[in-house]
Write a structure and sequence with these properties.
One of its GO terms (molecular function) is DNA binding. This protein is mainly α. Among the domains are: about 80-130; about 135-230, BEN domain (Arc Repressor Mutant, subunit A), CATH 1.10.10. It has 6 helices and 4 strands. The chain has helices spanning about 1-10, 20-130, 155-165, 165-170, 190-205, 210-230; strands at about 135, 140, 175, 185. A two-stranded antiparallel sheet has the order 1-2. A two-stranded parallel ribbon has the order 3-4. Helix 3 (about 155-165) crosses helix 6 (about 210-230). The protein is rod-shaped.
Length: about 230
């Protein structure tokens, strides 16, 4: 053994040629490999543990997110239902408005047709009376002029008196003769007045002769006052 050691020191024998040293060297290498494997295994276990914790955290987050998503979905579904109800209400209101609009259009068309028909009838009536003459006492006037008189009976009387006598004559005339009559005061023709009253009572039934006579006096008073204002 001592000689072997001396040979190793001198260099005659290589350390790799000694079985014991080779065995120790192999054991050292195996121990080194085992240590590396153990270290690698520890690192692997640590990584697996870290990955496990990481995935647990992810799963927990996903589960929490899933719960939140479910809550959000329920809230969104409720809002969607409310919106659908509102949309249905607006549709019903729109349908009512469209129906009302159609009814209004229909009534407008009917009124338009009636207006056209009435206008046509009036034209035909005007054509018929255009050549006719109306006689009030000693005065004869075209029947077409009566269409220019206003529709209220008292105003109709005033317009008809203007046509038959003229405002100048009316401002200087009275309905009946009285003791206070002057030379400048005229009495309206009795026959013309009677025909005017009969015509007005027939047109505006059931007014009385007293109402027509009052309308004539009112017209004469208006003409008298107008002349006095202009004279002043």
């Amino acid at each position: 053994m001592d000689r072997l050691i001396d040979d190793l020191i001198i260099g005659i024998v290589n350390a790799n040629q000694v079985p014991l040293i080779q065995d120790l060297s192999k054991r050292g290498k195996r121990n080194e490999k085992s240590s590396l494997k153990l270290e690698h295994h520890k690192v692997s276990l640590k990584r697996k543990h870290e990955q496990s914790d990481f995935f647990k955290a992810i799963r927990k987050t996903m589960n929490n997110g899933s719960d939140n998503d479910c809550t959000n979905c329920e809230s969104l579904n409720e809002k969607l239902k409310q919106k659908n109800v509102e949309i249905e209400r607006l549709r019903n209101e729109l349908a009512k408005i469209e129906s009302s609009l159609q009814e209004t259009k229909r009534k407008y068309k009917e009124m338009k047709l009636k207006y056209k028909e009435k206008k046509r009838q009036m034209k035909e009536e005007n054509k018929e009376v255009q050549g006719e003459m109306m006689k009030f006492g000693v005065i004869t006037i075209p029947a077409a002029k009566l269409a220019l008189c206003r529709t209220d009976y008292s105003k109709y009387v005033g317009d008809l008196l203007d046509i038959c006598f003229g405002r100048e004559t009316l401002s200087e005339s009275v309905l009946k003769c009285s003791k206070s009559r002057t030379s400048k005061t005229n009495v309206l023709d009795e026959g013309t007045i009677n025909d005017i009253m009969a015509h007005v009572m027939e047109k505006f039934q059931p007014i009385s002769i007293g109402m027509v006579r009052a309308a004539i006096r009112q017209k004469l008073n208006t003409c008298h006052k107008s002349k006095q204002r202009n004279g002043m």
